[in-house]
Amino acid sequence: WLRRPTVNTLQSEDREFKSLWDRLFLLSSLKPLHNRQQHHRKKLPSASSFSNISISKMATVLTLPITVPALPKSYVAPAASSSSRLSPPHPTGHRTLLPVGPAHLNYLRLALHHKHDFESFDAYLEAERVAKEKLLGAENGAEDDLGVGEEEEADELLSLDPKEWKKQDHYAVLGLSKFRYLATADQIKIAHRKKVLKHHPDKKASTETPSSILGIQNTNDDAFFKCIQKAHEVLTNAEKRRQFDSVDPAFIEAEEDLTTITEKEFKAKKLDFFKTFKPIFELYKRFSRVQPVPGLGALDATKEEVEGFYDFWYNFDSWRSFEWLDKEVNEGSDSRDDKRYTEKKNKSERARRKKEDIAKLRGLVDLTLSLDPRIKLIKQQEKEAREAKKAATNGKPAKKTKAQEEEEKKKKAEEEKQKEEAEKAARAEAKKAKAAAANAAKKARRQQRAVEDGA
């Protein structure tokens, strides 16, 4: 019986013949039984003895009938390559250079499509690069985050207490500070998913993060994750989001900076009217139930545009409310009287804040109207129109308005300028004619002298 040696019996240099042993063992197992009994006591050859066995005996060699064709008679062996990298000179002494390659294509785009304007061409290349990146991202399965991006998380934000969720900035928690009330439902969804993937307790449990409150290592600190969930709950609920947007901390801060202007301060500092008041109305227009909201406009706005602006803001219909600032009923209190008292107090505070908000906005509109330079221009134009109408009724020549006087002055100045240019051109022509006549007379005298000398 042929026994197969174990791997340990083989030397390290003979391990490559292990597969050959496997084949021999398989062949020996197929022999008749009497052959096995006859040779079972024979000593097996060592693995090194198989090194002389030709592998060709174990496979059939095939010879393919391939004949290499003879070289053509016109073939000339190439000369040995020189050490120089330069090609030999052209037989005719010159070569034809063809404009090809990406550099030439860029030059054609610059010349034909952008009229040698490098700024326009750079903008085109940048747009092309962005488009390629988007295409590559789409091919790789990348998701468009609708501009949400990644917002830096300050230590103060990460240390928020979920119990005081009403005091937190929900837009900042989700990384939507640059969008705020303009953030769409899809952007809120994407921002929430990003924050969950980053701050989920299961992920933080495997990494040590310092607790900003206790100053120690805390692997199960999920306080900020609870803040994320609460922010998502508020911003995905239309009613709760409206209440939060009414007292948005970013709006409160901007309101305090912009609405403290007074008439005395405005005149003392000689501030620009439009730069001062335009941001105020841009800030408040978010609360309007009626959209679109008319803007402050410019100095050349018509009377109808100015009157429409003030009419809109004096009748401003605001959806702003102050339920977010309501006081909560004391925990553990089952008294109905306490609940009724708290609800009554909250209702009274809401009405007071709403009244103050309306009065504040009305005061800003009054201040804007009193300082608006367009109002003075409109009143002046109306006064001049009345005087002109009155003069026409009495049969007297109508008094010219200030605008008409300025137009006449401008027209008169243009006429004088044209007249002066015409006179200047006439003098230049006369001077040229005089010089030409002098040259002709001089030439005639020379010819006459030449005739006299010849005679």
From TrEMBL:
Pfam families: DnaJ (PF00226), ZUO1-like_ZHD (PF21884). GO terms for biological process: 'de novo' cotranslational protein folding; regulation of translational fidelity. Residues 169-248 form the J domain. Residues 402-432 have a biased composition (Basic and acidic residues). It comes from the Eukaryota. Residues 331-354, 382-455 are annotated as: Disordered. GO terms for molecular function: Hsp70 protein binding; ribosome binding. One of its GO terms (cellular component) is cytosol. PANTHER family: DNAJ HOMOLOG SUBFAMILY C MEMBER 2. This is Zuotin. It comes from Hypsizygus marmoreus.
